[in-house]
Design goal:
Belongs to the anoctamin family. This is Anoctamin. GO terms for molecular function: intracellularly calcium-gated chloride channel activity; protein dimerization activity. The chain has 29 helices and 16 strands. It is of the alpha+beta class and 838 residues long. The strands form seven sheets. A four-stranded antiparallel β-sheet has the order 4-5-3-6. Helix 6 runs antiparallel to helix 8, helix 12 packs antiparallel against helix 24 and helix 17 packs parallel to helix 20. 35% of the residues are buried.
């Protein structure tokens, strides 16, 4: 039964009947069952602007959609009365004609009407139009109501019939299957003066058109046209976008705080004025000695993101993620109530045909239905899961290998750029290395994403999930895990590993005992993380937007050009609606999966490393404002109309969002403690700076911090393969004898040369303490907020209680009325008895 309402035949009902108006159908029941209305009843359903004129009289006045003939728009059979509910497309040259004939004979037996139509632009293409007569709809609705009691075998046969149609699409017996759009989304007349031509036209004018980007989405209309599942997606996307406004505003204020305090930052001033401080080369041989003041601009840019407001913003974003999820639950509950889904539960999933075919010989009794069903043995099930898990682990190793390749590229290229002939590249070799590595990493990400889809599909089918929901959840988890690791692995490397395990001058740690590991920029590692996040975010969102709209536009344009070349100029208006829709792009095979996936990945990118890149919410907000209109334009104008289906939430994605929220607290704690200079500066201010012991910290307390955070190295202690080719005499007044590097180590002339200083251990202890305190504090705040915010708004809870009260009152009154009738009947019988026996 789940397939009946959630796949193709669900549309036959949904297209004509509003779910909450199902009682209108029941009113047609007679004492013998449901009466079959006349053919004129089908005519009342022909208005393309409303799904059922007898069910939605109020909606017509609200939407101002006039009555129009469906015949003129190509939405009905040749008789001009029977509305086309579904279109199947096949080619005469196909070798699967026998299977099609069997299928068509079966659906005729179910009472559906069929009509074939040749394609005007391709003689090999045949359109099969389907229509469900009113009496068939009423018959199956009655059986659907009765399904709440015993299980009906007839419905089971219909479910298998629909599953059979899906298999025919898979083996290319049919080329396409889709419901029709309700006509054109354009009109010569203004919608303000003449009203909307149909729901599609209205959706375009008030939702998909770029000029209405600032308006609220018409969720009820989206739900009516595309179904609850797509309606919930756009509701969630709109809610997410709206919640990004405060996050983007606070992130922008944090960035502006860095801009306005830049001139008062003593650390960046000290770096810019350190013309006498000579830094050790960042690579072997080719990299020269540099003045610390040469990194002045990078120190200032670092301050824009790494300043006193960073910790506050990290706490704010962790709380924001919790508030976003908690208030979405409330919003979802309101929508579920308004759309009559508050008590809707998905029926038990039908067994997947692939599972049934493979395990048909092994059966056991279903404890619920008491009927035999195929099952998968425990040992086989978990052996398949073990193989699948091994495949997942192997693909994660592939990602790590790709990251390792990028690391090797960075290590080798920094020396190449340092010896580059162009002075601009040579003087900014580390930034050029980071920039090119990020671009290459983006290309690797996009290539691996193509591979991951095929691997996830293979591994999910290898597991042989029993039901469709199990298959969908398994595939979703794999795809998210693959793409999340693929997208964020390089970012994790830069945030937590870059420059952490390089050793020190004279004793560098090396890859394969050859290449020196990459060091952070003299101004810190945060600038590399900011570049990584900014470039990846901009490139990925630009690519996604192109694939969202540019690719369908190009495909549809190419289809039109091919038709012109083969058949000359054919006015688009002369084509019937089914042919116009056939020339559009079909929705991807996984429905809304890709739409959710890219938004969930963006949510992760926005929250997980937001402490290093406060502008991430702003970039996400700008992208999402565009994304809503791109998706709307795509659904309304570039895609065939998808099958509507019911849903009361966003499914497994909510759990993934909660997991990302928890991970973001941990990663931001480590970013602040390990990647940024927040903790070393704090330790210096309170323990080693001019204000040590005074219990205060400010910009005046940071004087001398840069010198205290740099260690001294004697250049004669360099390894032979690390010895710079120049002794620095070309750049400085005399040969360099000592250089500085970022670390807390003893000078070379001390009793323990190059050993860690006490300040190093103080900083390390402070970092660990900060991580523990930050995580516990934020998790406590998140838990408290989740507890204080109820899942249902008070007014909704009151309305639900009111409805429950009224239902109980009606049942009580009905019971009293029944008892009163029984009492009256007993009195009449007693009187009749007394008359007969005086």
């Amino acid at each position: 039964m789940g397939i009946f309402f959630n796949r193709s035949f669900y549309f036959l009902i949904y297209h004509k009947l509003a779910v909450k108006d199902i009682n209108v159908v029941l009113q047609k029941e007679t004492s013998d069952g449901i009466s079959s209305p006349s053919r004129d009843d089908d005519a009342t359903l022909q208005n393309p602007g409303t799904h059922s004129s007898i069910l939605d009289e109020n909606s017509k006045s609200q939407l101002d959609i006039p009555e129009r003939s469906a015949k003129s728009t190509g939405l009905c059979f040749s008789d001009g009365k029977s509305l086309i509910d579904y279109i199947l497309v096949y080619r005469k040259s196909s070798s699967q004609s026998e299977k099609r004939e069997i299928f068509e004979r079966n659906i005729r037996a179910e009472g559906l009407r069929l009509e074939k139509e040749a394609c005007l632009t391709n003689s090999d293409v045949i359109f099969l139009k389907l229509h469900a007569p009113w009496d068939v709809l009423c018959r199956y609705i009655k059986k659907y109501i009765a399904y709440l009691q015993p299980y009906h075998l007839t419905l089971h046969h219909l479910s298998l019939l629909v599953a059979g149609m899906n298999r025919l699409l898979t083996n290319n017996s049919y080329e396409a299957a889709f419901p029709l759009h309700e006509g054109s989304y354009h009109s010569k007349n203004s919608i303000r003066t003449h009203g909307a031509e149909n729901h599609r036209h209205l959706l375009y004018e008030c939702w998909a058109w770029w000029g209405v980007w600032y308006k609220y989405q018409p969720l009820d209309l989206i739900r009516r046209y595309f179904g609850e599942k797509i309606g919930l997606y756009f509701a969630w996307l709109g809610w997410y976008t709206g919640m990004l406004f405060p996050a983007a505003l606070v992130g922008l204020l944090v960035f502006l705080y860095g801009v306005f305090t830049l001139e008062h930052c003593s650390v960046s001033k000290e770096i810019c004025q350190a013309t006498d401080t000579i830094m050790c080369p960042i690579c072997d041989q080719y990299c020269p000695y540099l003045r610390l003041s040469d990194s002045c601009i990078y120190a200032k840019v670092t301050h824009l993101f790494d300043n006193g407001a960073t910790v506050f913003f990290a706490v704010f974003m962790a709380v924001w993620a919790t508030v976003f999820l908690e208030f979405w639950k409330r919003r979802r509950a309101v929508l579920a109530y308004d759309w009559d889904l508050i008590d809707w539960e998905e029926e038990e999933d039908e067994i997947r045909p692939q599972f049934e075919a493979k395990y048909s010989k092994k059966e056991r009794m279903n404890p619920i239905s008491g009927k035999p069903e195929p099952y998968q043995a425990f040992t086989e099930k978990y052996s398949r899961l073990l193989v699948s898990s091994s495949g997942i682990f192997f693909m994660i190793l592939v990602v790590i290998a790709a990251v390792f390749g990028i690391v090797i590229y960075r290590v080798i290229t920094v020396s190449t750029f340092a010896a580059f002939g162009w002075a601009l590249i040579r003087n900014n070799s580390q930034v050029a290395t980071t920039g090119t590595a990020v671009c290459i990493n983006f290309c690797v990400i996009m290539l691996l994403n193509v591979l991951y889809e095929k691997v996830a599909l293979f591994l999910t089918n290898l597991e042989q999930p029993r039901t469709e929901s199990e298959w969908e959840n398994s595939f979703t988890f794999k795809m998210f895990l693959f793409q999340f690791v693929n997208l964020n692995s390089s970012t994790f490397y830069i945030a937590f590993f870059l420059g952490r395990f390089t050793g020190r001058p004279g004793a560098y740690l090396r890859l394969i005992n050859r290449w020196k590991l990459e060091e952070c920029h003299p101004s810190g590692c945060l600038i590399d993380l900011c570049m990584q996040m900014g470039i990846i975010m901009v490139l990925k969102q630009t690519w996604n937007n192109f694939m969202e709209l540019g690719y369908p536009l190009i495909q549809n344009w190419w289809t039109r050009q091919r038709l012109k070349r083969d058949h000359g100029h054919i006015p688009k208006a002369s084509l019937p609606q089914w042919e116009k829709d056939y020339n559009l792009q079909s929705m991807n095979a996984y429905g809304l999966f890709d739409e959710y996936l890219k938004m969930i990945l963006q949510f992760g990118f926005t929250t997980i490393f937001v402490a290093a890149f406060p502008l991430a919410p702003l970039l996400a907000l700008i992208n999402n404002i565009i994304e809503i209109r791109l998706d709307a334009y795509k659904f309304v104008t570039q895609w065939r109309r998808p099958l509507p289906s019911q849903a009361k939430d966003i499914g497994i994605w909510y759990g993934i969002l909660e997991g990302i929220g928890i991970l973001s607290v941990i990663t931001n704690a480590f970013v602040i403690a390990v990647t940024s200079d927040f903790i070393p500066r704090l330790v210096y201010a309170y323990k080693y700076g001019p204000c040590a012991g005074q219990g205060r910290a400010g910009e005046g307390c940071m004087m001398g911090y840069v010198n205290a955070s740099l260690s001294v190295f004697r250049v004669s202690d360099f390894e032979k393969r690390s010895q710079p080719r120049t002794n620095g005499s070309e750049l400085f007044e005399e040969a360099v004898k000592y250089c500085r590097y970022r670390d807390y180590r003893e000078p070379p002339d001390s009793d323990e040369p190059y050993a860690y200083t006490l300040q190093f251990w103080h900083v390390l202890a402070a970092r660990l303490a900060f991580i523990i305190v930050f995580e516990h504090m934020v998790f406590a705040i998140k838990t408290l907020i989740a507890y204080l915010i109820p899942d249902l708004p008070k007014d909704l809870r009151d309305r639900m209680r009111r409805e429950k009260y009224l239902i109980q009152e009606m049942m009580y009154e009905a019971e009293l009325e029944r008892l009163q009738k029984e009492k009256d009947e007993r009195k009449k019988k007693n009187k009749a008895h007394h008359k007969e026996w005086p």
